[in-house]
Amino acid sequence: MSVPKNSVCIWYNGTAEEAANFYAATFPDSHVGKIWLAPGDNPGGGKKGDVLVVEFTVCGVPCIGLNGGPAVQHSWAFSLQIATDDQAETDQYWNAIVDNGGAANACGWCQDKWGINWQITPRVLTEAMRAGGDGAARAYAAMMTMHKIDVAAIEAAVAGV
């Protein structure tokens, strides 16, 4: 398998393989690929033979987990967004992340235990926002009061109920 032309590189502090295995077990069309071992010691504290890079895929998106050490911290400026079809799927992914040492945040955002930010976003919300108008305004206002997105509440807001 050749290296993709484009992939997402995510920095970890020695936990790239653990994170990749969790993502592969949690999300469809996800798997762990090649694991690269460090050919020598590195400035991030890694030693020769440690896991340096993990190739993995999340929902069909190729990623690289780099065990770069503690120097770089994650921010909300980067997140992985998962589109969901209904409340059950929203609950499944949200709960998997939050219940595995993660944290809930506002507006459908959560953070996994490795510090990676996720948006678990029902398609009904995305479709309402794309449509614009009063329905989008109501959906947006409803979303602003939520942590995990409530699909029925978004549908009601779009309908003006």
With helices defined by DSSP (H or I, 4 residues minimum), what is the helix count? 5
The CATH level-2 architecture of the largest domain is identified as: Roll
Measured as a percent range, the helix fraction is 25-40%
Radius of gyration over C-alpha positions, nearest whole angstrom: 18 Å
CATH topology (level 3) name of the largest domain: 2,3-Dihydroxybiphenyl 1,2-Dioxygenase, domain 1
Q: Tell me the CATH superfamily of the largest domain.
A: 2,3-Dihydroxybiphenyl 1,2-Dioxygenase, domain 1
Proportion in β-strands:
25-35%
- Write down how many β-strands occur, each being a DSSP E stretch of 2 or more residues: 8
The shape, in one word, is elongated
- What is the averaged pLDDT score? 95
Q: How far apart lie the N and C ends?
A: 51 Å
Name the poorly predicted regions. none
Largest sheet, spatial ordering of strands? 1-4-3-2
Work out the count of structural domains: 2
Order of helices and strands: EHEEEEHEEEHHH
Largest sheet: 4 strands, mixed
Structural class: alpha/beta
Descriptive account of the structure:
The model has no long low-confidence stretch (mean pLDDT 95). The protein has helices at residues 16-26, 87-98, 123-131, 133-143, 151-159; strands at 8-12, 31-37, 51-58, 61-67, 79-84, 103-104, 109-111, 117-122. It has 2 domains: 6-69, 2,3-Dihydroxybiphenyl 1,2-Dioxygenase, domain 1 (Roll), CATH 3.10.180; 76-161, Roll (2,3-Dihydroxybiphenyl 1,2-Dioxygenase, domain 1). It is built from 5 helices and 8 strands. It is elongated, with a radius of gyration of 18 Å. The strands form 2 sheets. A 4-stranded mixed sheet has the order 1-4-3-2. With 161 residues, the protein is an alpha/beta fold. Helices cover 32% and strands 27% of the residues.
